[in-house]
């Protein structure tokens, strides 16, 4: 007979055990949630007065004015600031940047004419890039001239620009006979003339078309050396040929600035002692119309450089001295002997330049098919790590991104003409923008993971190498839109990011737009700096949704101008 032991443990059924486990789990979860809430509350800083209200504090010295338009961005704003406090180059606690003195209104940091006088005049080294030292850097905002207006929209901008935007009459006087530019009341008119264009650039290009195929799509990219106000490039555009026009900052005041104000691709540059910032085999055509480059000197160095950047089968067009010197030598004010010698030197150098007529990876497709065809440098494996699959994926990604960009920026309203991609990669952004009346300067930083600029040119697009630790080779207020995807992730540990943003402010026109793409912590700090630069901005989610760690910052540079009597220390 079994005994009943009163002190023995009681038997628990399955229901009791399950209830205990649930109670334990809920208790632990509650403690975790309470701990997280307390930690978040303690780590959230108390906002201090004025920490993020710099945009509204306008009253800068010098009488600058600031528009008070509502934000143009349609996407919902996200507030990450109180939870992301990354200190980027010691930029925390920024005050609003003051305007620079009006004497800097057309400042080009690396082509400063005063600084250039310190350098050798041999091979025009004094007109090459010479960037400011640390103690020469400006931490102020370059002012627009009084009465600055938004440029004419393309295609009207090809023929007209506002006088107040570039108040220089020198070229209209100096080049009056050659019909470069004319002053008509409150605006400039560009008749299309040039030193070698007595009937205008349009007729000149028609004559050129009888010698080389400018309308077949086989010539797409060109470089115009010593471009003047870029009328040659301006009239090539209607033939679907895009030219990189360049000229130095010299006695022909503001010639590149006029070109960009017209909506024509251009850079400040010169053939001196350094290579041009373009890859080998980049251009389909190179053009010199009385560009004053001594082609036969220095053992043919300059002609060899043109040979480097021309693709096999490309064309070099030289008009002006010494070509046809026997007919024109009297008007050129040079002796027959001098002109004959120059032509002999050019022919000697041209004869010794030899190269393959073939392109590694295959021939280029004709434009416009070329824009989305796999570039030969990728198909041949010349760019390590870049494959046909990555090229296709990049194009697909940009097709989707442009749908989103149309919602957050006014791409289709004709507001933008000159566009820059600061970190172009394969040129997918520029290719996706081809449907709009814009052109894109594709910039490839030299410290990028891949040297892709050659492939960008093979797509029929244009661009340049550039290190963003230095100023870009352009005038202030020359771009309508800037795309900056991943660029600050590259440079945040290399140089002062505040200076990169000030450079973006310099080259962006008033009411221009910038699209940034970075991680949220970087974007929050970038926004704090752009707020101090008087920009209006908002952070939005990635186009794929809120769970993607990359976010988008859309910013607009507000309209303000300097005053003629403005003076700052």
UniProtKB/TrEMBL annotation:
Cell location: Endomembrane system; Membrane
Annotated EC: 2.1.1.-
SUPFAM superfamilies, A to Z: S-adenosyl-L-methionine-dependent methyltransferases
Domain of life: Eukaryota
Membrane topology: Single-pass membrane protein; Single-pass type II membrane protein
Keyword annotations of the record: Glycoprotein, Membrane, Methyltransferase, Signal-anchor, Transferase, Transmembrane, Transmembrane helix
Pfam families with a match to the protein in the record: Methyltransf_29 (PF03141)
Keyword Nucleotide-binding listed: no
InterPro entries xrefs: Put_SAM_MeTrfase, SAM-dependent_MTases_sf
Transmembrane segments: 21-41
Family membership noted in the UniProt record: Belongs to the methyltransferase superfamily.
Protein name: Methyltransferase
